[in-house]
Amino acid sequence: MDSVNRKIIEMLQNDGRVPYSDIAAYVNLSEAAVRKRVKKLESEGVIDIVAVTDPKQMGFPRQALVGITVDGDVEPVLAHLRELEEVTYLVVTTGRYDILAEIVARSDAHLKEAIYKKVRATDGVRSTETFQYLEINKQIYNWGVI
């Protein structure tokens, strides 16, 4: 990753709709060269330009992080959890939990259903602990160029 790509990424993280001409002026390249670099970064999976939404504004006012302890192999559990529409973030961890899953829900009843009938009912899940979000104080998307 060269410094030019880092600068391009930094600009896109600040505004994913910034014109290639603005980026080109910032990094001293042609617009075509910037477009080519952005397309390459996308095709290599380095960046993905998407609209970031606020779950509350999209009708999902309930959010929670669920710590999941698994009996045996985590892969079958992960495969099932990946398919759940309520799961928006899924990671394998070390420490107290094998997996952390972020869940969004339309209501308390929906959150309860997602946890009890979908997550906890998954074969291989031994136990869960739920941390319901009261408020989000920081959420960043430009950590890649820190």
UniProtKB/TrEMBL annotation:
Residues 1-61 form the HTH asnC-type domain. The keyword DNA-binding applies. GO terms for molecular function: sequence-specific DNA binding. GO terms for cellular component: cytosol. GO terms for biological process: response to amino acid. InterPro entries: ArsR-like_HTH, AsnC-type_HTH_dom, Dimeric_a/b-barrel, Tscrpt_reg_AsnC-like, Tscrpt_reg_AsnC/Lrp_C, Tscrpt_reg_HTH_AsnC-type_CS, WH-like_DNA-bd_sf, WH_DNA-bd_sf. This is Lrp/AsnC family transcriptional regulator. It comes from Corynebacterium glucuronolyticum.
